[in-house]
Design brief:
Blueprint (H helix, E strand, L loop, with lengths): L3 H23 L4 H22 L11 H15 L1 H4 L5 H23 L4 H22 L13 H14 L6 H21 L15
């Protein structure tokens, strides 16, 4: 039976790949280009995490992640009328992927024996870095560098995970609560326009 963290990994891959493919379609990428953007979005954060943990990137030993990204492309092609045209589609799948991947990265880092603060950092990298690569590939300012609450949603979810460890919650429920908290933080921040102050430099005289 598949465990919750593995389910998070695959659902997160599917969701993030769709978010990348959705944006690639807006830039008029061809099918292959859209697949590459979706794949990079899905595995980019986890790849950096594994390199920093000194282990082989996960997708290099399991072709299933490339297959899931291909299924995401197929999903968009079949339901493109609904997926591509809906303005909130990208946000929904991106928020889901963000929360699920945060938990996956955090859990893997703890498995390798690192402290919780390192796990929160790695969870944030796993969740946010793929989206940064996606935005670079489609020639957009990375979402993580804008005033939107994005990477901080991962940090928030990580702290919720930490707090849940002191409760009687099961491991699976702790992971679920942390992922949900990350997604909720992202949704609430966007809905109520909660953001960090913009760092403004001095204007140059012309």
């Amino acid at each position: 039976m598949i465990d919750f963290i593995t389910l998070c990994d695959y659902v997160g891959t599917f969701a993030f790949a769709i978010s990348g493919i959705r944006l690639a379609s807006a830039k008029q990428f061809d099918w292959f280009g859209a697949y590459v953007v979706g794949l990079v979005t899905a595995v980019g954060g986890g790849t950096l995490r594994d390199i920093m943990l000194n282990t082989t990137p996960f997708w290099m030993t399991q072709a299933s992640y490339m297959i899931v990204s291909g299924l995401a492309l197929l999903f968009v092609l079949i339901f493109r009328r609904y997926v591509i045209r809906l303005n909130n589609t990208f946000f929904i799948f991106d928020a889901i992927g963000l929360g699920l991947f945060m938990v996956v990265g955090l859990d893997k880092t703890l498995t390798y024996g690192f402290p919780m603060w390192t796990a929160i950092v790695m969870g944030t990298i796993t969740g946010a870095f793929g989206g940064m690569l996606r935005d670079i590939l489609i020639n957009e300012v990375p979402l993580i560098f804008r005033k939107d609450i994005y990477a901080l949603a991962c940090v928030f979810g990580g702290f919720i995970y930490w707090i849940c460890l002191a409760t009687p919650l099961s491991e699976a429920m702790t992971q679920f609560v942390a992922a949900f908290s990350c997604v909720l933080a992202r949704v609430v921040a966007v809905k109520y326009h909660i953001s960090l102050p913009v760092l403004k430099g001095e204007e140059q005289n012309r």
